[in-house]
Automatic annotation (TrEMBL):
Catalyzes the reversible conversion of ribose-5-phosphate to ribulose 5-phosphate. The gene is rpiA. It holds the Pfam family Rib_5-P_isom_A. This is Ribose-5-phosphate isomerase A. Substrate binds at residues 25-28, 80-83, 93-96, 120. Belongs to the ribose 5-phosphate isomerase family. It is an enzyme of class 5 (isomerase). GO terms for molecular function: ribose-5-phosphate isomerase activity. Keywords: Isomerase. Pathway: Carbohydrate degradation; pentose phosphate pathway; D-ribose 5-phosphate from D-ribulose 5-phosphate (non-oxidative stage): step 1/1. It comes from Paenibacillus puldeungensis. Transmembrane segments: none annotated. The active site is at 102 (proton acceptor). Its EC number is 5.3.1.6.
Amino acid sequence: MNAKQAAGYRAAELVKDGMTVGLGTGSTAYYAIERIGEMVEKGLRIRAIATSNASEELAVKYQIPLVKAAEVGHLDIAIDGADEVDPQMALIKGGGGALLREKLVAINSSRFVVIADSSKMVPHLGKFKLPIEVVPFCYEWTLRQLEARYPVPFEQRMREGGKYVTDNGNYIVDAAFGKIDNPAKLNEELKAITGIVDHGLFVNIASTVIVGYEDGRTEVKEASCSKE
Ligand SMILES: O=C[C@H](O)[C@H](O)[C@H](O)COP(=O)(O)O
């Protein structure tokens, strides 16, 4: 068992009969979805919402019943990966471009469980480039605003054959902050810029972090403060 699998499987144990569940995105969330799928096959009854088209496809493959937001008022639990986790459980997410749906699902869940291999645990956020989701309309103006405000490199995310487009039809700009001294302040500042839909900083949202290690061990950390 590898570190991501250990964290994913440990998180799946938190899913109980009757729960509504948010399914994250990425290579770590994959293992949680896989294990939840096995549990569903053995009779676990849950309803789930996926945070990306890729995770939705995975849920369908594992026959995990999916529902629309209109059908459920709130989620009991959401399980998702992260690109960086700091000691206060602030996160950078969005390496896979799913940050907007992930944040929506996370903040509408009673418990947001982050699963990460130990390499994701960092003393300060920012070495991983911060993904910022931007509307395509007048995109260049939004980028100009960012560049005027922060003296760090910004790079539009590309994919083979052109610009990267999120499941929501937006672009991603990756910002190389290097070290983010005050994630809460940057969170608010970025949210206030017109043209930015959302960004990958998750501050005061994680309830639990499950760290997976290469030897298969896991460590569970609980947040001391409440969610946003
Ligand atoms: O957009 C993608 C998500 O935020 C992922 O959860 C994050 O990038 C971590 O992915 P992985 O588990 O593949 O490292």
